[in-house]
Amino acid sequence: RCFHFCKLPGRVTGIRLLRFTSVVIIVLLLVAGALTALLPTIKDDKLPNSRREPKTQSQSALDSFTLIMQTYNRTDLLLKLLNHYQAIPHLHKVIVVWNNIGEKTPEEMWNSLGPHPVPVVFKVQTVNRMRNRLQNFPDLETKAVLMMDDDTLVSAHDLAFAFSVWQQFPEHIVGFVPRKHISTPSGVYSYGSFELQNPGFGNGDQYSMVLIGAAFFHSGYLEDFQRQPEAVYALIDETQNCDDIAMNFLVAKHTGKPSGVFVKPVDIRNLEKDTNSGYSGMWHRAEHLLQRSYCVSKLVNIYDGMPLKYSNIMISQFGFPNYANHKNKM
Amino acid sequence: RCFHFCKLPGRVTGIRLLRFTSVVIIVLLLVAGALTALLPTIKDDKLPNSRREPKTQSQSALDSFTLIMQTYNRTDLLLKLLNHYQAIPHLHKVIVVWNNIGEKTPEEMWNSLGPHPVPVVFKVQTVNRMRNRLQNFPDLETKAVLMMDDDTLVSAHDLAFAFSVWQQFPEHIVGFVPRKHISTPSGVYSYGSFELQNPGFGNGDQYSMVLIGAAFFHSGYLEDFQRQPEAVYALIDETQNCDDIAMNFLVAKHTGKPSGVFVKPVDIRNLEKDTNSGYSGMWHRAEHLLQRSYCVSKLVNIYDGMPLKYSNIMISQFGFPNYANHKNKM
């Protein structure tokens, strides 16, 4: 049966119906409006930067590297090199290990000459130790580390290429300075370079180490380095030398393969002579090489075995600097 | 109660006891003798050769390679090259793919000039096809194949080094002749070498193929080659060309990486000019390079995509031929 509504006269019913439907329509529109406000914001509304940030960070970690440069008594060279290295492609950040104890870092001056392409962090040290550069710096965000001596200038082309090589050999030390050890019948080891007899694996020479003073390696090895036997730290501190030999031992032990991959540099220079400080590097000390031979033997004792392996692979960049560097005479 | 034995007089018992124990002892000795005969033969008893055989076989499979050389109308070059290659270190066997249809192989003459350092097998073909050399020969016992054109002379030093490099990159084609493709805005591909513009990945050049006419690769790829789309075989047969490009496509697809690793040869020579046959290789045909560009595009269609990847890694042997080839000017 039809109720209250039906009792009304036809005309009044019509107007009430109209009002009713109008109200319903308005309510529906309001609800719809409220719903659209709740919809997820579409692309155009977002700031272009904010969407890109997370991607840049993960991209940075894999596609860029951190330069770690330890410095002592050669601030003029340091700053010259920073001017060069700050603009290397794929560089994420620079960590300067400041071994000038008690001396102010050039941070103020650095900042006054900003902005700079990448952040530079000055890590002030309390003791002047060779192995300071092998700390597991919390500032490190990238998988790759480029370690450079504070007197070594390597061209941007060489660094860009070597970084791409490291990306293909991430568990190795990929760098520009190869060295080798040889064992003697007495069981005592000797350290050196091309001047030493080749270890006798066919023709040509071999290398068993790549020095970390001009090389890329995985930041995980800095973590590993914190977990070495105390005797290793004692050896490095006693000689103020051999931290790079120790790193090669560590990497070789870890991989069971040759620790390094040698990339032949097109343009690498030592700027030592250019310093105003008059300070020349540790390698000028009379006992330097003898110390390193000593270190090799000591490390074999500490690690109870010789983990270093030989390699004769030399990598160059195809077609650079000369596109004809690979033309054969066929 | 004591039985029969006890009834006997003491003296008789003593003798019987003695006999009994003697028999027991003799039986025990016989049993012991029989047992020692069943023991595994100790080392000294084995023939020195028979113990070494299985090891040599497995050692051979991993530490040596098989040379596959296809030949057509250049038997003089073939024999010259066989004299050279038969003495390469780590060579296991030579397979000559005889494309001289209807012509006798030089096997008799070869045997009359024996013995030779390694076995040489002449595989007589029924049709003169470029892709005959890519069969999965049952004669193949090694993991590694060295494929050489019948007019290419590579020094033993280069081959020994390249083999050691292949052992470190077994899934790649490790060889001496790099080539590249470039894509054009029209989507049509071009094939070439240093004369083509570099693909634009920074400075220097790139390569995306290593030709199999002077290269090491895994014998498994010959097996894989038998399972390619029919259109690939048709293309190679139609052009009598491009089998090497097809192999690079196959390898790149399989690894997802650049197919080849380029080893810069110290001494590689083309002996074409030296042949008496007057026959010069296929690459002198006017359409040779155009065919190869055509092949690249066709293979992209067949494989529904471009699997080739670029590399700029060039490998040389450290300290050879000159120990100073890695000295830097620091």
From TrEMBL, chains A, B:
Membrane-related topology note: Single-pass type II membrane protein
GO cellular component: endoplasmic reticulum membrane
Keywords associated with the record: Disulfide bond, Glycoprotein, Glycosyltransferase, Manganese, Membrane, Metal-binding, Signal-anchor, Transferase, Transmembrane, Transmembrane helix
Gene3D superfamilies noted in UniProt: Spore Coat Polysaccharide Biosynthesis Protein SpsA, Chain A
EC supergroup of this enzyme: transferase
Pfam family, one: Glyco_transf_64
Domain of life: Eukaryota
Reactions catalysed: 3-O-(beta-D-GlcA-(1->3)-beta-D-Gal-(1->3)-beta-D-Gal-(1->4)-beta-D-Xyl)-L-seryl-[protein] + UDP-N-acetyl-alpha-D-glucosamine = 3-O-(alpha-D-GlcNAc-(1->4)-beta-D-GlcA-(1->3)-beta-D-Gal-(1->3)-beta-D-Gal-(1->4)-beta-D-Xyl)-L-seryl-[protein] + UDP + H(+)
InterPro entries reported in the protein's UniProt record: Glycosyltrans_GT2/GT47, GT64_dom, Nucleotide-diphossugar_trans
Subcellular location as annotated: Endoplasmic reticulum membrane
Keyword set includes Nucleotide-binding: no
Enzyme Commission identifier(s): 2.4.1.223
Chain ranges of the Glycosyl transferase domain: 65-320
Chain ranges passing through the membrane: 20-42
Family: Belongs to the glycosyltransferase 47 family.
Protein name: Exostosin-like 2
